[in-house]
Specification:
single chain; about 350 residues; alpha/beta; 4-stranded antiparallel β-sheet; 13 strands; globular
C-alpha cells in the first residue's frame, strides 16, 4: 500500500540510555545513578502523602518546591523553574530560547540528547570538537551563534571548567542564551549559579537524579533571570502546565530540606571516587580527573570494548560508547565501596589473563 505521508514524517534519532535491568544481582555502574537511597525525609514524605489528594491536580506553580529551591539558593521564586526531570527542562529551554537561523553551539563529546532535541525541534546546530585532552576550547564558542549549551561538568569526560572559563564564555556571548547544564555539579567545587546576577542571558539547569538519589522520581530545575524563567513557564503552560506530580513535589521538597543527609552522601561518593581512581591507576588504567560521580578511563594495553563485554558477561554493567574518539574509553559510575571492590576484583583477574 502506498503511504503518501511517509516522506513527510519527522526523522528523529532517539537518545540511547545505558542498559537497564531489574536483576538485583547485577552491579549497575552504567547510568550514573546514586548508589545510596534518598533521604529518610523523602521516604517519609512519600509514606505520609494523603492518598485522597491524588484525585486533584498538582499545583500549577509547583510550590512549595519552587519556594524551597529559591530559599536554598538565595534566589527569588521568580528565578526558579521546575519540571519532570532536567531532560524535560532542557526540552523546554530548546523550545523557548533557540529560534535563530544561526546554529546553537555545544561540544561534540557531551550529552547525546542535545542533537536529538535540535533535530526534533528543527534547531540548527554545530558540535564543537573538544581538544585531544577532552577539554572544551573557549575559542570555539566565540563565532556568531544562535545560543550555547555546555554541560559542566561534562559527560562522558567527567571534566569541569571553573569560574574564569564560564565568565569568559558568557562575556563572549551576551546576545544569546547560554545554558550551563549542571547535572553533576554537586560532585564538583564550582557552580555557575553565582553568575546569575552578573549575566541576564544565563540559564543553569540542575537535576535531582544524581546527587539527590531521585532518578526514579524525575525532577529537574532551571535557574535564571525573572524574564527567562517567565518564558519557560509560558512554554510549559502551552504544553503541559502540570509537569510535576504531587508526590514528586512533596518528595523533592523533603530532599532539599535534609542538607545533612545530602552532604553525607556526596562525601561518600567523592571518597569512593578518589579510592577508585587510585585502584584503577594501580591496574594500569588512565583515569581522567573526575568532578562527577563517574570515572572516564582507558587502558593502554586492553580493548575497552573487550573489557565492557567481559564485565557485562559477569553481571557488571559499565558504559561503552562505540563512536570515534571514545572507542577505547569506558565510563564507570561510582557505586558503593562493596560494588567497586567487586569490579576491581574482576578487573584485576581479567587483566592477568
Amino acid at each position: 500500500m502506498k503511504k503518501p505521508w511517509s516522506d513527510k514524517l519527522r526523522q528523529a534519532v532517539p537518545y540511547a540510555p545505558g542498559e537497564q535491568t531489574s536483576d538485583r544481582d547485577v552491579i549497575k555502574l552504567n547510568a550514573n545513578e546514586n548508589p545510596y537511597p534518598p533521604s529518610p525525609k523523602v521516604v517519609e514524605a512519600i509514606r505520609q502523602f494523603p492518598a485522597e489528594k491524588l484525585c486533584l491536580y498538582p499545583r500549577i506553580t509547583a510550590s512549595p518546591l519552587v519556594e524551597t529551591l529559591a530559599e536554598y539558593h538565595g534566589l527569588k521564586k521568580e528565578q526558579v523553574f521546575v519540571a519532570n526531570s532536567s531532560d524535560e527542562v532542557l526540552a523546554f529551554c530548546f523550545q523557548a530560547f533557540f529560534h535563530s537561523q544561526k546554529p546553537v553551539f555545544f561540544p561534540d563529546l557531551s550529552y547525546t540528547f542535545y542533537p536529538v532535541w535540535c533535530d526534533l525541534f528543527g534547531v540548527p546546530y554545530e558540535q564543537k570538537p573538544v581538544g585531544e585532552d577532552f577539554r572544551i576550547r573557549l575559542s570555539d564558542y566565540a563565532p556568531e551563534n544562535g545560543g550555547v549549551i555546555l554541560p559542566n561538568p561534562n559527560a562522558p569526560t567527567s571534566l569541569a571548567e571553573g569560574p574564569d572559563f564560564l565568565r569568559a564564555l558568557l562575556q563572549e556571548n551576551q546576545d544569546v542564551i547560554v545554558i550551563i547544564d549542571e547535572a553533576y555539579v554537586d560532585f564538583s567545587p564550582y557552580s555557575a549559579l553565582e553568575l546569575l546576577d552578573e549575566f541576564e542571558n544565563l540559564v543553569v539547569i540542575r537535576t535531582f537524579s544524581k546527587s539527590r538519589s531521585l532518578a526514579g522520581l524525575r525532577v529537574g530545575a532551571a535557574y535564571g533571570s525573572e524574564e527567562l524563567i517567565a518564558l519557560l513557564n509560558a512554554v510549559k503552560g502551552s504544553y503541559n502546565p502540570f509537569t510535576l506530580d504531587s508526590i514528586a513535589l512533596a518528595a523533592a521538597t523533603a530532599s532539599i530540606q535534609d542538607e545533612d543527609y545530602f552532604r553525607q552522601c556526596i562525601e561518600k561518593v567523592k571518597a569512593t571516587r578518589t579510592r577508585s581512581q587510585a585502584a584503577l591507576e594501580e591496574m594500569g588504567f588512565v583515569v581522567l580527573p573526575s568532578q562527577t560521580n563517574f570515572l572516564f578511563v582507558t587502558h593502554p594495553d586492553f580493548s575497552a570494548e573487550a573489557i565492557y563485554h567481559a564485565c557485562n558477561d559477569h553481571d557488571i554493567f559499565i558504559r561503552y560508547f562505540k563512536q570515534p574518539r571514545l572507542e577505547n574509553y569506558l565510563r564507570i559510575t561510582i557505586g558503593t565501596d562493596a560494588q567497586m571492590d567487586h569490579l576491581f576484583a574482576f578487573l584485576h583477574e581479567y587483566l592477568q589473563r
